[in-house]
Amino acid sequence: MGAAPLHLAVALDGTGFHPASWRDPSARPDELFTPGYWGDQAKTAERALLDFITIEDSFGLQSSKFSGPDSRTNQVRGRLDAVLIASLVAPHTAHLGLVPTANTTHTEPFHLASALSTLDYVSSGRAGWRPQVSSRLDEAAHVGRRQFPTVDRRHRDDPAAAALAGDLFEEATDTVEVVRRLWDSWEDDAIIKDQSTGRFIDRDKLHYVDFEGRFFNVKGPSIVPRPPQGNPLIAALAHSRVPWEFAASSADVVFVTPSDAADVPEWVDGIRTAERTVERSGTPLKIFADLVVFVDDDASIAADRKAWLDELDGWPMRSDAAIFTGTAAELADQLISWQAQGLDGFRLRPGVVWHDLDAIADRLVPELQRRGAFRTAYDNGTLRERLGLGRLPSRYATSAASASTQATRSVGAVG
Amino acid sequence: MSTPPLKQVILAAYFPGVNNTTVWSDPRSKSQIEFSSFVHLAKTAERGKLDFFFLAEGLRLREQGGKIHDLDTVGRPDTLTVLAALAGVTTHLGLAGTLNATYHEPYEMARQLATLDHLSNGRAAWNVVTSSDAFTGENFRSGGFLDYADRYVRAGEFIETARQLWDSWAADEIVADKESGTFVRHGLPGSFAHHGAQFDISGQFNVPRSPQVHPVILQAGDSDGGRELAAQTADAIFSRHSILGPARKFYADAKGRLAKYGREWDDMKILPGVSFVLGDTPQDAAEQAHLVRRQQVSPQTAILLLEQVWNRDLSNYDAEGPLPDIDPDVSTTSIIQGRARMYPDPLKTAREWRELAEAKKLSIRELIMETSGRLTFVGTPGQVAESMNEFVQTDGSDGFVLAPHLTPTGLDGFVDTVVPLLQERGVLRTEYETTTLRGHLGLPAAGAPRARKVATA
């Protein structure tokens, strides 16, 4: 194995990331909303010894347009709540990390903290969270709590768009801060069950979080005792400066989208710059590159498969992440060469889940193992431990040992 | 004349809660938060062919006298997240959770409940509660915004909105025909609009129609307004009437309100929350019950419960000694926060308790044992099975929500000994005959076959 271990995750979304993937012969579109469909994907990912899966989510219907619903009838529409999917598959897996997407714009930070703590309990320390903001007008109308200006997100220089993005990520930063405080609000040894005094808890080890910010106030403490990992893993997808800085101040893992190997150093540099800007201390962000993958035994078959799906959909597939078509050996080459440019790992987005997730498990992973580049068995341990992040003490713990570690954890909420 | 067929006894398993009825001091008591405890109770309930598992919701830790309450079990999980995980380890058991209509929003909660219904193949249920206290509101964006009088307005509009969202996908909306390339029949599935006093929302619901269409709805309201809302909207009432006489009155009153909403007598089930203690003989059961009561009312808990009536710091009093001579403090606001107020007239309660303590020569602790948290069914398995069956057959209820006092093994003995006796009497299934919770409860199918039309604004 090389100097640093390679980390591999898979992103799950419906029938795969190609919009026409549901029409592939392998696809099971009529099972999309059944428990077995999600259990099977998780078990396949665990068979592949992957670090974790992410599960996509949103508060609105899928759409080919950014601005809102598109009225198309030839793509998958409808999805299930990602945190609950992760919870469902937890008892069916033993090692796989479970990282659902959950919205920060339209949800209650208190509920998010409780749900993710609980996911960490039901999975015995394998929970993560991908916080996601939403600026879609239709999603705001689903909640009715706030209205957004109409902005053209294609023009990042539009001051209204920049202001909205700034607000949404500031709120996301506050949300993560509150969630982390709630996770820390019970010290690890708060439950005492002391028969002589009749006390179940030592209430001096429970702490109000007393968060007050622009968007909400939260008193605390959490209703859920401190989760097994202390803080479940937080991962953010980030494409530009504002989200990079959000990731740098709030996350443990960042997903980036370089277009090719030569592009990787620029992304890594952007992330490291963001870390300095927000004065991140402690463990640097683990950087994962996202790739959409179509994997076959023959490179031309993979390319033809994608082309056929493009034709079915009526458009060449568009993606923020680079699209790979080729063999498992070619993909292994690419992962190893990109990793050398400063990456910790990859989040692979299967083009067609029941073809390309299987190919990851049955072709790519054995290929990486043959090269000594990927684990051949899971170690016991939590998701954080697998990523070399360990378990942090509660920021409220009073012992000297934990206080020094704690200083490195304080993440500055903007504003 | 033939006798009418026996009613089936509906049974639910309540996960022990965060109050003094849950005995944590017993050596057999296990974690209130580890997933293995939830799995144990759910699998035990499913082994006993019970109808559903029931989990309450916590939104703020209880406080008394400005301090976090530390004598009872503290700390619980997020309701829906546990239920989704349990969906993965059970196959037939209904999965019910309390969710507060004040501190959730319809779009998000409707999609979570619809998700749970999909992931459990039709076993989801929602116990609707509302609260108006600013104390709980301090944990949420909205704060303590709801007027006390608006609790049922909020709950009613929430349920109506949720059902509108659940109806918003037509039963045949998903085509998923690979050949023709049609995934959904219409361009904008899930279209909805609700313009009301509590919620003003519109758009597209993004969870397709779930197996039950409408997850089962339970309500706990006991006031006139609560009963009326239940008669209008609920599939079951989680009631507090566990004494046969008052229970029968409540049953007749609540069901009597159904007709005016065009509903049948059996369309809403009445399920009181009950406790139980089993013994080998009647004497053994009585002794066990006394022991449980002593565990539930520790000396510290006795003083604390007394303080809830007296509204004063009584920590200097001896729980094994007599009641305080001073009267309750009715001049200031309540010292308890985070749970409902139990005693509306403290001076009257104090007078009655003094008389009772004097007549029976009771200490503070003995008095609290006598006046709080009565155990509903105490006896041998045969006695308990008989009393429960009689309670149901004489229209005290349609069944029970069983609240064991031990986590998580408190239901084991009941399933091993009482369940077979109920099955022998033909009032409890020996195998599940349906797959959805609606099916288990004998409720009518829900939801219009077509998506509701959206009124254009």
Describe the structure.
The complex is a heterodimer of chains A (415) and B (457). Chain A contains 12 helices and 13 strands. With 415 residues, chain A is α/β, with parallel strands linked by helices. Chain A has a single domain (7-407), classed as Alpha-Beta Barrel (TIM Barrel). Chain A starts with 6 loop residues before the first strand and ends in an 8-residue tail after the last helix. Residues 400-415 of chain A have low confidence and may be disordered. Chain B is of the alpha/beta class and 457 residues long. Chain B has 14 helices and 17 strands. Chain B has helices spanning 35-47, 79-87, 106-119, 134-137, 151-166, 224-233, 244-256, 282-296, 299-310, 346-360, 364-371, 381-393, 412-424, 437-441; strands at 10-14, 52-55, 63-64, 67-68, 94-100, 124-129, 174-177, 182-184, 191-195, 200-204, 216-219, 236-239, 269-274, 276-278, 336-337, 377-379, 399-402. In chain B, strands 1-2-5-6-11-12-13-17 form an 8-stranded parallel beta barrel, surrounded by 6 helices. The mean pLDDT of chain B is 93. The chains are: A alpha/beta (415), B alpha/beta (457). The interface between A and B is large, with 82 and 77 residues.
Descriptors:
A: 415 residues, TIM Barrel, eight-stranded parallel β-barrel, globular, B: 457 residues, alpha/beta, 2 domains, three-stranded antiparallel sheet, 14 helices, 35% helix
- CATH class assignment of chain A: Alpha Beta
Shape of chain A: globular
CATH fold-level name of chain A:
TIM Barrel
Second CATH tier, the architecture of chain A: Alpha-Beta Barrel
- Placed side by side, the strands forming the largest sheet of chain A appear as 1-2-3-4-9-10-11-13
CATH homology-level superfamily of the largest domain in chain B:
Luciferase-like domain
Strand content of chain A: 15-25%
Quickly describe the structure:
Chain A is α/β, with parallel strands linked by helices and 415 residues long. Chain A is built from 12 helices and 13 strands.
